[in-house]
Structure prediction request, 464 residues.
Amino acid sequence: MDTIIRGGIVVTPSGRSASDIGIRDGRISHVIDRDSTTIELDAATVLDARGAFVLPGAIDAHVHFATTSPGAEPGFVDDFLRGTRAAIHGGVTTVGQMSFTDTGSLRAAVEADHAQARALSTIDYVLHPGTYAVAAEAISELAGLAEEGYRTLKLVTLALDEDSTHFAEAVARAGEHGMLTLLHCEDGALIEHATSELMSDGRSDLRFYPESRPVVTESAAVDRAIALCELTGSPIYIVHLSSARALEAVRAAKGRGLPVFAETRPIYLYLTDRVHAEPDGGRFIGMPPLRRDEDVRALWEGLADGSIDTVASDHAPWSLAAKIDPALTVETARKGMAELDTFLPLLYSEGVRTGRLSLERLVAVSAENPARLLGLYPQKGALQVGSDADIVVLDPADERTIRAAELESAADYSVYEGWTATGWPRLVLSRGEVVLARDGSSCTITAAPGRGRWLPAGERREPV
Prediction:
């Protein structure tokens, strides 16, 4: 075989084992439990995992990379090269790009992103065809796209009232073609009213942004999304869930047996709306906004008990100057931030080390469940014989201070600047190739631009 990862503790959602992993031709060829066999693997390259956990590479199902290279200001500053390097730095070995159309054609959107990804992506990727306003053309393309391996559709409920018939039809047709509809759930009419009130009252400053999108604007849209699921029978996946109230609706829908799945974002697990009162608090603005302590607690509980299926970054990287431009208001705020570089380290440090999440559950929500829901399992998200050798060797004792200047994203700030995280990748492998190696203060990423491959989806599976 080509490579052995030796001496580590292999972790899957079902448990841990003291196992060595053999790799041949980019795939896992052996998983040998050291406690139950005397077989010793041999290979040209032996990687030392002693004192570390061996995990399946994380799958971030929700990123936004620039559609030009390099990213243009004011806009997302990470193209597929900088964005996937940031992913590797954070222990992510597969990304899911939101490919939004600005012409009405979903096919044109994915083809444009393919052109960038084929030339620049350093890791494997999924493309989610998406649209802000559902047009008949987009609906007509669903069957062909599904047949080719695109098994997701991204829709945004902000404009649902403007064309509810096409919206419902898109969800229905997507389900008929075996597609999972990814839904951004916020109620546009309620947001418009709340924002108008703030502007009229002279509270247009970015520090008031959370009041422009209160919890009810999310929960109302989640309720409606669940109703669409119940009406059509089509599976839905609610992206970036942020509140306890919305989570309760998801939990109740699951309890009724509806095919409703949910993700949350790292920022909703680590921060609250209090940070908006800080100087330059606009750098924390996302969609939906940050919530309160009780929401943070509820989201951690939802991850632990299976009500929330995945964690995804919603990586949307701006420069700091663009993000906190003094001309911006609650109406024109630029939403999103860079989060890929710190994906696994913070989830381990803030989740596992604090006792909020078991390590096995971390693997489920960061790797296996995204793979299952996107139709990639067990090619991705698994440490099984035959799976792609997408592997992270995580050092649980490696403590580092987060500095934007040391990260791979082109964003020049981090919302976690100065935080200490414990548990960083020592090694990251993508299809058997070592693409990151960390030794002391040195961190080397060697993945070549364009080595990443598009992943057509297979059969979707239930999450664990």
Summary: The chain has a mean pLDDT of 97. The longest strand covers residues 391-401. The chain has two domains: 3-54+386-445, 57-373.
